[in-house]
Design a protein that fits this description.
This protein is α+β, with helices and mostly antiparallel strands and 459 residues long. It is 22% helix and 33% strand. The structure holds guanosine-5'-triphosphate (GTP).
Length: 459
């Protein structure tokens, strides 16, 4: 069944008012934190507690991880999919899982903690509404994840820069410190001011003590393993907090935008892509334009939360089967959109950015890497237009010579040509037109140096 677009919008609005299907509001969650904080263990155990992983799979995971000499990773085994991930015991790609709580249908993006995989983390966080930060409470470990160069700090700043406003902090491995209340309080006290500085409102930040491996305070806080924690903790479980996350408002009226985050080229059965529908609505049978390029594709099926659906609305993390398209034209980072409302292509644009804690200031002509959803491209900061007051946004100085750490500025960015070929423009929109399409991150030599929003496309 396919609807005319205005009919479809009516249908979507109706189902949003009285949340349809399963009667739950959906949202997506990126799991972030320092390497080895226990992100995969926590998600693996949580999925088990919620009945998403059966005992047979659990036993098989236990057996296989023990055989590989990594028994402590048995809970993570279910999530860390590829052989290399299992051998190294770290998550590299972004794993996608889903589960439901009483009121929410949650899609989880388990992002890798290792520094060299920050681009995957950016891809994960740019598809999420909320973040779950996992920190390791063991002596010295929390500190390592949080000091300069630690991933807890960087992940939080990146998540906020990508538009995530709500965060749950799970303070994990408390079994390692005998469930000491003092250690929990100490970590909360260290994190609170940092979260505020990074732009998270205190009312949108919650903390929860957990023991991922033992399954303490994930779905329930009971049994022998939870005894010590129960002596001083009477608050919500992790699932209670997840159940109370607020789904952000969805922009269903703007044209559809789907940055491709993954491509699966099947044999014979066509090609599938996965990504997040940032705005608008789409339906089966619809023709979409692939940008950059001249190609179009027809949506053969839409899968959301492992179910085939006739249509999907903004905020859905979906998999689309596409037909009538040459798969070569599909690349990670390309954007699918209606042929009548294509995304502009940019090779030069202006942006308002915030400079992070950089050691080397940014000068005009600085070569950088530009991140937009799952795409990263070489670029140049081609002009420093003005430094801005961080709170009012007013111009402090026009044509500054350098941009130093913690400053705010308007700059012009130009894509850089690779070798002999010209830089290929890529799909981008001003933040004022489409929030989710207008956010960028700027990195240099493996370090994130700035984040910002696109103000104008110049060409
Ligand atoms: N003692 C204790 N160990 C834990 C707990 N949670 C996780 N671990 C251990 O910590 C190690 C790292 O766990 P992972 O779940 O792989 O960590 P991760 O954060 O997903 O790591 P990356 O994916 O590499 O970023 C494993 O050896 C786990 O068994 C816990 O609650 N208590």
């Amino acid at each position: 069944m396919s609807f005319a677009k205005d009919k479809l919008l009516e249908e979507v609005k109706k189902s949003m008012q009285s949340p349809g299907g399963k009667g739950k509001q959906g949202l997506s969650l990126v799991v972030i934190g320092h390497v080895d904080a226990g992100k995969s263990t926590l998600m693996g155990r949580l999925l088990y507690e919620l009945g998403r992983v059966d005992d047979r799979t659990r036993t098989a995971n236990e057996r296989n991880s023990t055989k590989a000499g990594k028994s402590s990773f048995s809970w993570a085994w279910g999530l860390d999919g590829t052989t290399e991930e299992r051998e190294r015991g770290i998550t590299m790609d972004v794993a996608l899982q889903s589960f439901s709580t009483t009121q929410r249908q949650i899609t989880v993006l388990d992002a890798p903690g290792h520094k060299e995989f920050i681009p995957n983390m950016i891809s994960g966080a740019s598809q999420a509404d909320c973040a779950l930060l996992v920190v390791d409470a063991s002596t010295g470990e929390f500190e390592a994840g949080f000091e300069r160069g630690g991933q807890s700090r960087e992940h939080l700043i990146l998540a906020r820069s990508l538009g995530i406003a709500q965060v749950i902090v799970a303070i994990n491995k408390l079994d390692q410190v005998q469930w000491e209340k003092n250690r929990y309080d100490e970590i909360c006290a260290l994190l609170r001011p940092f979260l505020v500085q990074s732009g998270f409102h205190p009312s949108k930040t919650t903390f929860v003590p957990v023991g991922a491996m033992l399954g303490v305070n994930l779905a329930a806080c009971e049994g022998d393993d939870a005894k010590q924690l129960l002596e001083w903790y009477k608050g919500p479980t992790l699932v209670d907090l997840l159940d109370n996350l607020e789904p952000p408002s969805r922009d269903i009226v703007s044209p559809a935008r789907i940055p491709i985050s993954n491509i699966f080229k099947g044999q014979g059965s066509g090609t599938s892509i996965s990504g997040r529908l940032l705005s608008g609505v789409i339906q089966v049978g619809e023709r979409l334009r692939v940008l950059p390029g001249d190609e179009t594709a027809v949506v053969k099926s839409i899968e959301v939360e492992e179910e085939n659906v006739p249509w999907a609305a903004a905020g859905s993390n979906l998999t689309l089967a596409l037909v009538s398209v040459d798969p070569i034209q599909l690349t990670i980072g390309s954007v699918l959109c209606p042929p009548t409302d294509p995304v502009p292509l940019a090779s030069t644009f202006t942006a308002k950015i915030i400079i992070f804690d950089v050691q080397v200031p940014i000068i005009s002509g600085a070569t950088v890497e530009l991140f937009h959803h799952s795409r990263d491209v070489p670029a140049t900061v081609s002009k420093l237009i003005a430094t801005l007051d961080r709170t009012s946004g007013k111009i402090v100085k026009s044509n500054p010579r350098v941009l130093v750490k913690a400053s705010s500025a308007e700059v012009q960015i130009t894509l850089r040509a690779m070798g002999s070929s010209n830089a290929r423009p890529f799909p981008l929109e001003p933040y004022a037109v489409n929030k989710a399409m207008g956010r960028i991150l700027i990195r240099r030599e493996g370090e994130t140096i700035a984040a910002g929003v696109v103000t104008a496309i110049l060409g």
